[in-house]
Design goal:
Layout (H helix, E strand, L loop, with lengths): L8 H17 L1 H9 L4 H6 L9 E2 L2 H4 L11 E4 L10 E4 L2 H16 L6 E5 L1 H4 L5 H12 L6 E2 L4 H13 L4 E5 L1 H10 L9 E5 L12 H12 L5 E4 L8 E3 L5 E2 L4 E6 L14 E7 L8 E10 L5 E6 L14
Parallel strand pairs: 1-13, 4-5, 4-6, 6-7, 7-8
Antiparallel strand pairs: 2-3, 8-9, 9-10, 11-12, 12-13, 13-14
Helix pairs in contact: 1-2, 5-7, 9-10
Length: 326
């Protein structure tokens, strides 16, 4: 049984069953597990999530990470900057991804259909294969508010629709990549206090601006929109689940996901809670790819299972979905 207090026995049971299955039926993951010294007997005997090897996230850049034999309904790709190899995540069933994303959001906020959705995601809309855009489109389609939609450069139209929604008391989510939210906030002639809306940033400057700290970003947005907190979404191409922060940069996982602290000096070992660590992720929604991912993010994991992201690990590529350092 896991020593981590936030890993429920039922979650662990499902995760270990999935580990055994993927170690047998995912060629890329099976190769990695065996490189770690695991044989079939050890795989079958594993009794704790603390023991499971995590696949380096870089594998999604060079290999087809699939469990079983199937043809993808969709392929998500990362937004890596020029010269970087993008990650590719083949998805067996797009509907399963969308349902899981919907359930993950609803776990924290209620059904996406309860909100209007104003999406400010220019860098994602300008390319194909964004899992974030697929999720946002699904939420927009579910919204009964006619004002919902995507905005590339029409900030005046965005403001007009938001003012209409606010005047009518419609709960609204403004989902935006960080640089675009900052550009919008700085373009306002005066603060625009919001009473029925939340701003949710997805992190990342996409090379457009100097990377500020999360505290600086949130301070700017709070001042521009009269809010006491800024929400955040943590997701990536290689994962099919998302974590959310409802303020102060502390993320919490949906039922399908857990974050495991990785020791920075001995990556096969867990790091102590609340220490600076590498972020390993168990994502049960990745049943058709790999559910055990060693990311390149540094962070801090707490006893209740929540976590902070402290930026990229030293030596790791800076890419679009990295979050701001605290």
């Amino acid at each position: 049984m896991s020593q981590l207090p936030f890993v429920h026995p039922e979650f662990e049971r499902i995760a270990l069953a999935l580990f055994r299955y993927q170690a047998a039926h995912n060629p890329v993951y099976a190769e990695w597990v065996r490189l770690q010294g695991w044989d079939t007997a050890r795989i079958e005997a594993v009794s704790s999530l603390d023991e499971v090897p995590f696949l380096p996230i870089e594998a999604f850049k060079t290999r087809e990470v699939r469990t079983g034999t199937w043809e993808p309904e969709a392929t998500f790709t990362s937004s890596g900057t020029t010269g970087q190899t993008p990650s590719r995540h083949d998805v067996a069933r797009l509907e399963a991804y969308l349902r899981n994303a919907e359930a993950g959001f609803a776990y924290f906020y209620g059904a996406p259909s309860n909100y209007a959705w104003l999406c400010l995601l220019p860098s994602y809309l300008e390319r194909e294969g964004s899992s974030l855009v697929a999720m946002a489109q699904h939420f927009v389609q579910q919204s009964p508010a006619g004002e919902s939609g995507f905005f590339l450069k029409g900030l005046d139209e965005l403001r007009f629709r938001l003012e209409t929604l606010e005047a009518n008391g419609v709960p609204t989510v403004i989902l935006g990549v960080t640089f675009a939210l900052l550009d919008w906030a700085e373009s306002l002639p005066k603060p625009m206090p919001l009473k029925h809306s939340i701003i949710m940033e997805t992190g990342g400057m996409k090379g457009r601006r100097v990377e500020p700290s999360r505290a600086e970003v949130h301070h700017t947005l709070q001042h521009a929109f009269g809010l006491d907190r800024i929400h955040s979404e943590y997701g990536m191409t290689e994962l099919l689940s998302q974590a959310y922060s409802q303020g102060e940069g502390r993320f919490r996982c949906p039922p399908s996901m857990r974050v495991i602290p990785r020791d920075l000096e001995a990556p096969r070992l867990q790091a102590p809670l609340e220490s600076r660590c590498g972020i390993n992720i168990v994502d049960l929604a990745n049943a058709d790819s790999c559910a055990f991912i060693a990311t390149e993010d540094a962070g801090r994991v707490f006893a209740d299972g929540s976590f902070e992201v402290l930026g990229r690990l030293e030596g790791a590529e800076l890419r679009g979905c990295s979050l701001m350092a605290l």
